[in-house]
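Appendix B, example 12.
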Amino acid sequence: MVPDSNPSADALQSEVEALCATAHWCYARGWVPATSGNFSMRAGRQILITPTGLDKGTLTARDLLEIDSDGRTVAGEG
């Protein structure tokens, strides 16, 4: 069950930074070569995911897509 409330902006930013750092860490070890795989996170009702074809070694918070529970894009491109 997903909580109805969304995290604070500071908490969400911290989670996003952790997601990007994890992607970079995995990329540096060769676990996600170039554009392979995806990373995602859920924060309250928000679902953030890496777009298709993005080099995970260069991932930034601005690259993430926000999708709804049906997989439709809410924000971002990809």
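DSSP finds one helix and four strands in the chain. The two ends are 27 Å apart (CA to CA).
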